[in-house]
TrEMBL record:
PANTHER family: BLR6921 PROTEIN, MAJOR FACILITATOR SUPERFAMILY MULTIDRUG TRANSPORTER MFSC. It comes from Microbispora rosea. This is Drug resistance transporter, EmrB/QacA subfamily. InterPro entries: EmrB-like, MFS, MFS_dom, MFS_trans_sf. Its main location: membrane. PROSITE patterns: MFS (PS50850). It is found in: Cell membrane. Keywords: Cell membrane, Membrane, Transmembrane, Transmembrane helix, Transport. One of its GO terms (cellular component) is plasma membrane. The keyword Cell membrane applies. GO terms for molecular function: transmembrane transporter activity. It holds the Pfam family MFS_1. It is a multi-pass membrane protein.
Length: 480
């Protein structure tokens, strides 16, 4: 399969029924909860450490444990969907996420809180790829852009709103409210899910679970994410001296070796836990590479922009959260348009124009003074958010459109893994570059860091050009 043909087709323009839109909204509800939880809880780590009598380093594992657990559960999602069906997996993970949110609120010490956060992360890691699979199976490839954009709105708005919501919750009550807020949301999502999410089980039972492959991927992905994140964090604490890499080298090397061992294992296994044969499809390979590159540029920037406001513009935590809302708002506003464009013209060409806009809206931060007018800053963030709607989401959609329906569970899992790895790498690079330059001056440090972000955006643009070429070759091959 390839992307939709260039120009409007009857399939791409066909209306989408209300039951499908309703299903997309339910899936978006679950994605919003899991994405919101990360940024809301991170705001309260200092308060949690104080109230539970723990050090800030111990409290940091409340965040790290969650992220590592996300990487642990992701590799199993494809097999679980093939075994039990996408709808049942989504409902079970949502129920588990809601239950563990309540357990986190009841934790009496930091050890129990970290343990419950790990359990919460294991369930949250399944929500987004299982939800994407549900939607892909419901709508079909040529209308996938419009409904996937609904999920994209939830995924981009949640991190933007999270810091501000976390600050409000901590102002109104104690830290358990950071988790209790998930209970009414989860109950409502479960009610809607039980009513509207299809629970069809696959007609053909999959092969037995590839345990050796699962263990290799489930070890490699979290180790890489943790090692890269630790490198960035220790680079900050060491003042950018570079000494922070020593403690992160072991996890990074072990994670890379585990994933290399899995790639070797997958070639020799009839039914690996992740089907790497999908990468033989040029359009899929280009789309996933572009998704990883855009993940590095987008998620890495989520580290850079808060520091820009806090260190460069002397803005508090709550003020920073409010100042970043235009970034998520711009993405949310344009995603419906982005999805329709993907259905009509294909994800590659849409990502190209989005990549150009992302570069254009990043360059000013690398050149202009730190004390530029706040209205100019907010306007640039709004425009950059719109650019990301055209650059990031279309690449993932193009990957899903490039595979057959029975391969969708593997595709959603692989794209999510690569985006998380790309995001961890981007965050690390920008953190190390920034802290290495800070002793020489704040403004110069941020100019350099945003220069690197511009370079990452250019790499994402190159990936989008590659994807466009691969899609065009695929259409010519089908036509010829």
């Amino acid at each position: 399969m390839t992307a939709p043909p260039t120009g409007g087709t009857r399939a791409a323009d066909a209306p989408i029924s209300w039951p499908v839109w309703r299903l997309a909204l339910v899936m978006a509800f679950g994605a919003f909860m899991s994405q919101l939880d990360t940024s809301v809880v991170n705001v309260g780590l200092g308060t949690i450490a104080t109230d539970l009598g723990a050090g800030l380093g111990d409290a940091q594992w409340v965040a790290n444990g969650y992220l590592i657990a996300l990487g642990l559960s992701l590799p199993a999602c494809g097999w679980l969907v093939r075994r039990y069906g996408a709808g049942p997996v989504w409902l079970a993970s949502l129920g588990g996420f809601t239950l563990t949110s309540g357990l986190c609120a009841l934790a009496g010490d930091i050890g129990w809180l970290v343990a419950f956060r790990v359990a919460q992360g294991l369930t949250a890691g399944l929500l987004l790829p299982a939800g994407q699979t549900v939607l892909g199976q419901a709508v079909g490839a040529h209308r996938l852009g419009r409904v996937m954009a609904t999920l994209g709105i939830a995924v981009t708005l949640a991190p933007a709103l999270g810091p501000a919501l976390g600050g409000v919750l901590l102002h109104l009550g104690p830290w358990p409210w950071l988790f209790l807020v998930n209970l009414p949301l989860g109950a409502l999502a479960l009610y809607l899910g039980v009513r509207h999410v299809p629970r069809d089980r696959p007609a053909v039972r999959p092969a037995s679970l590839d345990w050796p492959g699962l263990l290799l991927v489930a070890a490699g992905v979290p180790l890489l994410i943790y090692g890269l994140s630790a490198w960035g964090a220790r680079g900050v604490s060491s003042g950018g001296s570079g000494s922070g890499f020593g403690g992160a080298l072991g996890p990074v090397a072990a994670g890379a070796l585990a994933l290399a061992a899995f790639a070797r294992h997958a070639r020799r296994t009839a039914h690996p836990v992740l089907d790497l044969r999908l990468f033989a499809n040029p359009a899929y390979a280009a789309a996933t590479a572009t998704a990883a590159l855009t993940g590095a540029a987008m998620f890495g920037a989520t580290l850079l922009f808060p520091l820009y406001f806090q260190l460069g513009r002397d803005t508090g935590v709550t003020g920073t959260g409010l100042a970043l809302i235009p970034l998520g708002l711009g993405t949310a506003l344009l995603l419906p348009v982005s999805g329709r464009l993907v259905d009509r013209f294909g994800g590659g060409i849409v990502s190209v124009y989005g990549g150009l806009a992302a570069v254009a809206t990043t360059v000013p931060f690398a050149l202009l003074r730190m004390d530029m007018n706040p209205a100019v800053v907010e306007g640039l963030l709004l425009l950059r958010g719109m650019a990301l709607a055209l650059a990031v989401t279309p690449a993932g959609i193009a990957a899903y459109q490039a595979v057959a329906p029975e391969q969708l569970a593997d595709a959603t899992t692989q794209v999510n893994i690569l985006q998380r790895l790309g995001g961890a790498l981007g965050g690390t690079v920008f953190a190390v570059v920034l802290t290495a330059r800070l002793p020489l001056g704040v403004e110069g440090a941020f100019h350099t860091a945003f220069g690197w972000l511009t370079a990452a955006s250019v790499l994402s643009l190159a990936g989008a050009v590659w994807l466009t070429a691969a899609q065009r070759r695929g259409r010519r091959a089908e036509g010829g």
